[in-house]
Amino acid sequence: MRIAVDPIACDAHGLCAELLPEVIVLDEWGYPVIADAKLPARLEGLARRAVSACPTLALRLKADTPAVNGSRRRTGR
């Protein structure tokens, strides 16, 4: 699972960084900067809380999707 921010919707309230400082830091203007890294399982609950507490609904959780292997072919069977 990953957390992402919609930079257009964000108004730089900073609540997300207060609720999830392990993953979210604020830039010099107060906007969140989130590394595109998988959330540790121990932080998923806190990430859900940060997403639901965002006053502008600018945060979302994204499920990890398995990598697509381009070398696999369908056999048609």
Q: Could you explain how this protein is built, in words?
A:
With 77 residues, this protein is an alpha+beta fold. It has one domain (2-62): Alpha-Beta Plaits (2-Layer Sandwich), CATH 3.30.70.20. 19% of the residues lie in helices and 18% in strands. It is built from two helices and four strands; from the N terminus they run E-H-E-E-H-E. It has helices spanning 15-19, 44-53; strands spanning 2-5, 24-26, 32-34, 59-62. A two-stranded antiparallel sheet has the order 1-4. The longest helix is centred in the middle third of the chain and has 10 residues, at 44-53. The radius of gyration is 16 Å and the shape is globular.
Question: How would the blueprint of this fold be written?
Answer:
Elements: E1 2-5, H1 15-19, E2 24-26, E3 32-34, H2 44-53, E4 59-62
Antiparallel strand pairs: 1-4, 2-3
Task: Give the strand content.
Answer: 15-25%
At the third CATH level, what is the topology name?
Alpha-Beta Plaits
Q: What's the quaternary structure here?
A: single chain
Strand numbers in spatial order across the main sheet: 1-4
CATH class: Alpha Beta
How is the biggest beta sheet arranged?
2 strands, antiparallel
Catalogue the unreliable spans. none
| Percent helix | 10-25%
Gross geometry: globular
Distance between the termini: 34 Å
The number of E-state strands comes to 4
Radius of gyration: 16 Å
For the structure shown, list the relevant keywords.
77 residues; alpha+beta; Alpha-Beta Plaits; two-stranded antiparallel sheet; 2 helices; 18% strand; globular
